[in-house]
Amino acid sequence: MSMFQTVLTETDIKLSDSAASKMAELISDADEEIQAVRVYVTGGGCGGMTYGMTFTDACTEYDGILECNGVKVYVDSVALAYLKGVEIDYVERDTGASFVFNNVFSATGGSGACGACGAAGGGCG
């Protein structure tokens, strides 16, 4: 029996309607073997962590799964510790459209700004 949380709810990670709709569209346009969108976290320098997404064709025993409007999102247990409470949104602006991670620092208590220069989200450089 897995000791990891395998079923995620909107209290763990939330997809906005526009994000779920865009993910469904992208998955339907992808190769047949694509099962879900994987949300991941990597080290991001002095500004904190970097958050991203990719397609995936496999679920591991360490993944939590969020199902929202027919879309599956996989998040491994380590990434979930940094993503708890995040909302993933899809926004269209004059400068372009993108997925946005809102409330990413609620789980870790961070501000998302560099302590040295004050730059938001990316830190110095």
Secondary-structure blueprint:
Blueprint: E1 13-15, H1 17-29, E2 36-43, E3 49-56, E4 63-68, E5 71-76, H2 77-83, E6 86-93, E7 96-102
Features:
3-stranded mixed sheet; disordered C terminus; 2 helices; alpha/beta; Hypothetical Protein Aq_1857, Chain: A; 125 residues; 4-stranded mixed sheet
Textual characterization of the structure:
- With 125 residues, the protein is of the alpha/beta class.
- It has one domain (13-102): Sandwich (Hypothetical Protein Aq_1857, Chain: A).
- It contains 2 helices and 7 strands.
- A 4-stranded mixed sheet has the order 3-2-5-4.
- Strand 6 and strand 7 (96-102) form a beta hairpin.
- Mean pLDDT is 83; it is low at 110-125.
Briefly, what CATH class? Mainly Beta
Percentage of residues in strands: 35-45%
Number of domains: 1
The biggest beta sheet, please?
Answer: 4 strands, mixed
CATH topology: Hypothetical Protein Aq_1857, Chain: A
Explain briefly what this protein structure is.
With 125 residues, the chain is an alpha/beta fold.
